[in-house]
Design a protein that fits this description.
- By secondary structure, the chain is α/β, with parallel strands linked by helices.
- The protein has a single domain, classed as Alpha-Beta Complex (Spore Coat Polysaccharide Biosynthesis Protein SpsA, Chain A).
- It has 8 helices and 10 strands.
- The strands form 2 sheets. The chain has an 8-stranded mixed beta sheet with strand order 3-2-1-4-9-6-10-5, with helices on both faces.
- It is globular.
Length: 244
């Protein structure tokens, strides 16, 4: 089962090199591709990606939704891993996700635990495992508990920095949905998948505790988080997903 890592970019020259190096270091025994889909960067993002020998597409429209949906049309994988341009994958990421999909054929999509990181990252190894400590541990732990609780109450949500979905499920819901700015593409996409699951009468979305990815904390703010919660509620009310 082939996998495609789809990474939308726009002026990400400061971090895209590290992101792609990590993506290229996956330890797997199956084929996978890395597709960078750019939204018209004016910096060196595309040049850095091309130098690292990954596929580079240029979307005619800027925006995560438009760029990912464009890249998906070109992708060859049976699993799409939608990874943000500031998210670092551990070397066992694809292998663990791939194995989970193989073992659980009714799972349509999954995402894994993430930790926010800034300038300081401490890592150490214990046997075959790598442990990471960042300056955002309390917040990262709170986010982990949030996703676990949603899973527990059978209303899961995919973490936006890394969303993995079967190809057929992605296209069955029409790809990533167009939503109001800052609504939360991850939440809206999760709701569309849940709608599909209800309609067809089978399927699951899962949140995995391992492996852990690292995602940049550069966009964090209390104001943004509060606005996001309000917009998600309006979206749920509009779609009739909060009834019953």
């Amino acid at each position: 089962m082939r996998a495609s890592i789809l990474i939308p970019t726009f002026n990400e020259e400061s971090i895209i090199g590290d992101v792609l190096q990590k993506a290229k270091q996956q330890i797997v025994n199956f084929p996978y591709e890395i597709i960078v889909v750019d939204g018209g960067s004016t910096d060196q993002t595309r040049a850095i990606a091309e130098a690292l020998d990954v596929s580079v597409l240029v979307s005619t429209q800027k925006g995560k939704v438009e760029q990912i949906n464009y890249a998906a049309q070109q992708a060859k994988g049976e699993i799409f891993c939608l990874v943000d341009a500031d998210t670092l994958l551990p070397s066992n990421y694809l292998a663990r996700v791939h194995r989970f999909f193989v073992r659980h054929p009714k799972v349509l999509a999954c995402g894994t635990r993430y930790k926010y990181f800034g300038r300081r990252i401490r890592q150490w190894r214990l046997g075959s495992r790598t442990f990471t400590l960042t300056s955002y541990e309390p917040l990262s732990l709170m986010m982990t508990m949030w996703y676990l609780l949603r899973d527990l109450f059978n209303y899961p949500e995919l973490p936006g920095c890394n969303m993995c979905v079967r190809r057929e499920a992605f296209f069955a819901v029409g790809g990533l949905p167009l939503v109001p700015r800052n609504l939360g593409i991850d939440a809206a996409f999760s709701y569309e998948l849940l709608r599909l699951i209800r309609k067809q009468g089978w399927g699951r979305i899962r949140y995995l505790l391992s492996p852990t990815v690292l995602t940049a904390a550069r966009h964090l703010s209390m104001e943004r988080s509060a606005k996001r919660l309000k917009q998600i509620q309006r979206y749920l009310d509009h779609q009739g997903l909060t009834e019953g």
